[in-house]
Design a protein that fits this description.
Length: about 60
């Protein structure tokens, strides 16, 4: 949940604070482009987190 909120909301705020401030990217299209970018970056970070948790879970011996 934290990754999703920071990824989707935080990346868009960062986009507006950085990329959107460049005059040539100060357009509605630039804002629209931030949505798929934030989704892709968030997805990549979630997959990395999933891989880390999955590896840790499979390394531990099974408890009975």
């Amino acid at each position: 949940m934290i990754i999703s909120v920071l990824g989707v909301c935080g990346l868009r705020v960062a986009w507006v604070a950085t990329v959107f401030q460049i005059p040539q990217y100060h357009t509605p299209e630039s804002l629209y482009f931030s949505y798929p970018v934030s989704w892709l970056v968030t997805f990549a970070i979630q997959m990395i987190a999933f891989a880390i948790v999955y590896r840790r879970h499979n390394r531990e011996p099974a408890r009975s």
